[in-house]
Automatic annotation (TrEMBL), chain A:
The keyword Nuclease does not apply. Its main location: membrane. The keyword Protein biosynthesis does not apply. InterPro entries: ATP_synth_F0_asu (IPR000568), ATP_synth_F0_asu_bact/mt (IPR045083), F0_ATP_A_sf (IPR035908). It is found in: Cell membrane; Membrane. It comes from Dyadobacter fermentans. This is ATP synthase subunit a. The lineage of its organism: Bacteria, Pseudomonadati, Bacteroidota, Cytophagia, Cytophagales. Residues 1-26 form the signal peptide. Coiled coil: none annotated. The chain crosses the membrane at residues 142-163, 201-221, 228-247, 267-292, 299-326. Key component of the proton channel; it plays a direct role in the translocation of protons across the membrane. It is a multi-pass membrane protein. NCBIfam families: ATP_synt_6_or_A (TIGR01131).
UniProtKB/TrEMBL annotation, chain B:
PANTHER family: ATP SYNTHASE SUBUNIT B (PTHR33445:SF1), ATP SYNTHASE SUBUNIT B', CHLOROPLASTIC (PTHR33445). This is ATP synthase subunit b. The chain crosses the membrane at residues 12-30. F-type ATPases have 2 components, F(1) - the catalytic core - and F(0) - the membrane proton channel. F(1) has five subunits: alpha(3), beta(3), gamma(1), delta(1), epsilon(1). F(0) has three main subunits: a(1), b(2) and c(10-14). The alpha and beta chains form an alternating ring which encloses part of the gamma chain. F(1) is attached to F(0) by a central stalk formed by the gamma and epsilon chains, while a peripheral stalk is formed by the delta and b chains. F-type ATPases have 2 components, F(1) - the catalytic core - and F(0) - the membrane proton channel. F(1) has five subunits: alpha(3), beta(3), gamma(1), delta(1), epsilon(1). F(0) has four main subunits: a(1), b(2) and c(10-14). The alpha and beta chains form an alternating ring which encloses part of the gamma chain. F(1) is attached to F(0) by a central stalk formed by the gamma and epsilon chains, while a peripheral stalk is formed by the delta and b chains. It comes from the Bacteria. It is a single-pass membrane protein. SUPFAM superfamilies: F1F0 ATP synthase subunit B, membrane domain. Its main location: membrane.
Length: 364, 164
């Protein structure tokens, strides 16, 4: 064993001296020659790099997928056909600045002292790095969110109009279709989980369900934004649920948190941190579940379509298309299921926080 | 990793838009829709309750009616029975009375007959006495004229007297 090691070190030492001595010895001949060689090597390297770049420019599936699921400052419907969206920046020295994202369409992606960086996701950075800016742009996701908000408001105010105008009539048409879902959410999701005071939380939970549902489904349309697969959106929703839960929680809930009944003293040292982690785990799981499900669905679909471009074969394309069609149906199901689960878990969290139990504290 | 870093601008817009949607929908959509649904449910429940109540009332009415009919039948039967009894009694009474009356009439008729008989007997007796006296007178008369003839006459008279 020892001899092996020794031999290894000796060889390593010799190799190292050779490597370090090489450039020193190469310097010795005329400067001219070495420059030429270096230039040639550089040129070769450039060529290889260029080739690699070209190859990458042809098709890079990872880049394509990231480009599709990330947010953007313009709405690209297909390659080269895009709708510029307003960029809104706030900085302390310049105040509010509003301009169209199409201004970045130049060689350096630069406008008015700002630089649009195309990394994994798009980002606007000031050229002067000392400045700090806040980006409130109407990005593709924000635009999609606004469209979904308008659709939601139009749809449900028109449904509400039907209820106002035809009192005492049997449900009919679109109103009855929505009614089925509303009743399902009210009777199967909210009522049994929130408890007798469910009516107070019903508007929030109904909006939550339909907002997630419509954005899940809109996200499946070609060329659309991936709103519910964006962590900022799911985080906002989860935090709102968290705030509602903890604003309305009763004393019982907080008491259980700080002194879980039936737990012996020494165990409290472990239990209380666990309970407190649990409190933050709930919204965190809400956030990650929706984000991961929707993003994963999009990645799978995009990977399948990417395969068509990688293989570039007439035999593969129909097979993959069929498979993608099948997955699309699954994604529609997932859109409903995830909206349902988010609403269900939100109502369960609210329900446990406002639950009155005057009887024994033995069960959880 | 950019996927996992929330963008503050998007959070801002998300908060603004989502809270606005919650507010607008709560006020202009969920309130009337949920109220409409609740009203309709109450209406349906009310109608069902009313139907149940009406059915109970109908059942009550039916049983009341049946009871009334049974009572009326009982009363009718009673009345009929009473009437029959009364008529029976009347008939029996009048029969008795008639029998008594008839007895009386028969009795009086017998009395009359007896009286008439007695009168007739006494009359006959008187007649017979008168007739005997006449016969005796006539006999006596004839005796005075012819002896044979007298005897014959007496024989005749005697035979005729036996017939009486």
């Amino acid at each position: 064993m020892y001899t092996h090691l020794r031999r290894f070190f000796t060889i390593a030492l010799i190799a190292a001296t050779c490597v370090f001595n090489l450039p020193a010895r190469a310097d010795e001949p005329t400067q001219h020659e070495t420059d030429k060689v270096a230039q040639a090597v550089n040129e070769e390297e450039h060529k290889i790099e260029h080739k690699l770049e070209e190859h990458e420019a042809k098709f890079n599936i990872g880049e394509m997928i990231m480009h599709h699921i990330a947010d953007s400052h313009e709405w690209e419907f297909s390659h080269g056909v895009s709708l510029p969206l307003p960029v809104i920046l706030y900085s302390e020295d310049r105040g509010l600045e509003v301009f169209l994202s199409s201004n970045f369409h130049n060689e350096h992606h630069e406008y008015n002292g700002y630089h649009l960086v195309h990394g994994e996701s798009e980002q606007i950075v000031p050229v002067d790095e000392a400045r700090k800016i806040y980006d409130f742009s109407i990005t593709k996701n924000v635009a999609s969110m606004l469209i979904s908000a308008v659709i939601l408001i139009l749809v449900f105010t028109s449904v509400a109009g039907w209820y106002k105008n035809s009192k005492g009539k049997a449900p009919k048409g679109f109103a009855s279709a929505m009614e089925v879902i509303i009743l399902f959410i009210r009777d199967e999701v909210v009522k049994p989980n929130v408890g007798p005071k469910y009516e107070k939380y019903l508007p929030y939970l109904l909006t939550l369900f339909f907002f997630i549902l419509i954005n899940n489904i809109m996200g499946l349309l070609p060329g659309s934004a991936n709103l519910t697969g964006n962590i900022a959106v799911t985080m906002t929703l989860a935090v709102l649920t968290f705030i509602i839960v903890h604003l309305n929680a009763n004393g019982n809930y907080y008491k259980h948190l700080l002194s879980p009944p039936g737990v012996p003293g020494p165990l409290l040292l472990i239990m209380i941190p666990v309970e407190i982690v649990g409190v933050f785990m709930k919204p965190f799981s809400l956030m990650v579940r929706l984000f991961a499900n929707i993003t994963a669905g999009h990645i799978i679909l995009l990977s399948l379509f990417g395969l068509i471009f990688i293989f570039q074969s007439f035999v593969i394309a129909p097979v993959i298309s069929l498979f993608a069609l099948f997955l699309n149906f699954i994604e529609i199901m997932v859109a409903f299921i995830q909206a349902f689960i988010f609403t269900l878990l939100s109502s369960m969290y609210i329900g446990t926080a406002i639950e009155e139990h005057s009887h024994d504290h033995g069960h959880h | 990793m950019s996927l996992l870093t929330p963008n503050p601008g998007l959070i801002f817009w998300m908060l603004v838009v989502f809270l606005l949607v919650v507010f607008i929908l709560s006020k202009f959509a969920w309130k009337p829709i949920l109220k409409g649904l609740k009203d309709r449910e109450n209406e349906i429940q009310g109608a069902l309750d009313l139907a149940e109540k009406t059915r109970a009332e109908m059942a009550q009415l039916k049983s009341d009616n049946e009871k009334l009919i049974a009572e009326a039948n009982a009363i009718r039967d009673q009345i009929l029975r009473d009437a029959k009894d009364a008529s029976d009694r009347t008939i029996a009474e009048s029969k008795d009375k008639a029998a008594v009356e008839a007895q009386k009439i028969i009795e009086s008729a017998r009395e009359t007959i007896r009286n008439e008989q007695a009168v007739a007997v006494s009359k006959i007796k008187k007649e017979v006495a008168t007739l005997s006296l006449e016969i005796a007178e006539k006999v006596l008369h004839r005796e005075l004229e012819d002896k044979g003839a007298q005897e014959k006459l007496i024989a005749d008279l005697a035979s005729s007297a036996r017939l009486n």
